[in-house]
Amino acid sequence: MANALIYGEVGSGKTVNSTLVRAGKRGRNLLLNSDNSHVVLGNFERPNLDVQIIRNYLKKDGSEDYFAKQFMDAVQSGKYDTIIIDNLTDLIDLALQDYKRTPGTPKDERQHYKMIYDDLKYLARQAGQVDCNVIFTCWLDTSEMTMPDGTRQNVFRPQLPDKILNNICGLCNIVGKIHKTMKDDKMVWYYILEGNNNIYAKDQLFCRKACMPADLFTPPQKKGGTQNAG
Questions:
Q1: pLDDT in the model for residue 65
Q2: Residues 83, 131 contacting (CB under 8 angstroms)
Q3: Could you tell me the maximum CA-CA distance found in the chain, to the nearest angstrom?
Q4: Mean of pLDDT values over 149-157
Q5: Distance between CA 197 and CA 147 in Å, rounded?
Q6: pTM (2 d.p.)
Q7: Per-residue model confidence (pLDDT) at position 104
Q8: CATH value at residue 205
Q9: What is the average pLDDT score of the chain?
Q10: Residues 67 and 56 sit within 8 Å (Cβ to Cβ)
Q11: Domain total of the chain
Q12: Which range marks the domain in which residue 150 is found?
């Protein structure tokens, strides 16, 4: 199956739109949510969606609910077409808090970061090999880059630590930035999937420039022998 990373500003619609992804084979998707953004779904109908809250990154006494177990239980259940992990940026913060507060973990915070980074790189690799599609969401990070002519331009990328940014993006089949536009007096959200010097994006599955959220893992329609880019 395939995996994707979708990123955008806080409040840009990542949670709402990621849960629109088609569930065609098994008929259900799962949202694993850490940042409380699942509450927005109370305003929308998602009859094919289950929601679980990620309350713990590490296993704790008296609780069997922790992130790695929730993810693997969902995969092994065979119930879901897509598992959405919302979001990786916040999950790192949750993991750091758990390492600081859980007895028996290393006291050196540098080890906490290393273990979390190793976990997430392994997770991204696993997500491309399990029997369902996986979507990660991230908040947006914006930085400035100096071009060869001396001008400075903004670079848009997922808000992940530099040490794992390329690992995570490289292990995902799709990296997309969420955008919105007005069409027929209605707001429409879509994913930019074509990267350049200013934006992290790619589509290894179908080589699209953009797509609608529901069609993230759906092959584009062919028209006259060519593929519709989105």
A1: 85
A2: no
A3: 63
A4: 87
A5: 9
A6: 0.92
A7: 86
A8: 3.40.50
A9: 92
A10: yes
A11: 1
A12: 3-227
Q: What is the DSSP letter of 44?
A: S
* Phi, psi dihedral angles at 109 (to 5 degrees): -65, -25
124, 3 in Cβ contact below 8 A?
yes
Q: Is the dihedral of CA 104, 110, 113, 117 positive or negative?
A: negative
Cα separation, 175 vs 58, whole angstroms: 27
CA distance 101 to 106: 11
Whether the predicted pLDDT of 140 surpasses 80: yes
Structure token pair of residue 175:
């990296």
Judge whether 127 and 3 are in contact, CB under 8 Å. Answer: yes
Choose the weakest-confidence range: 62-71, 94-103, 201-210.
Answer: 62-71
> For 107-135, what is each residue's pLDDT tens digit?
899 999 999 999 999 999 999 999 999 99
Cβ-contact 140, 156 below 8 angstroms: yes
Return the H-helix or E-strand segment holding 165.
helix 162-171
Query: Tokens at residue 24, please?
Result: 């065609």
Helix 67-77 and helix 88-101, axial crossing angle in degrees, nearest 10:
130
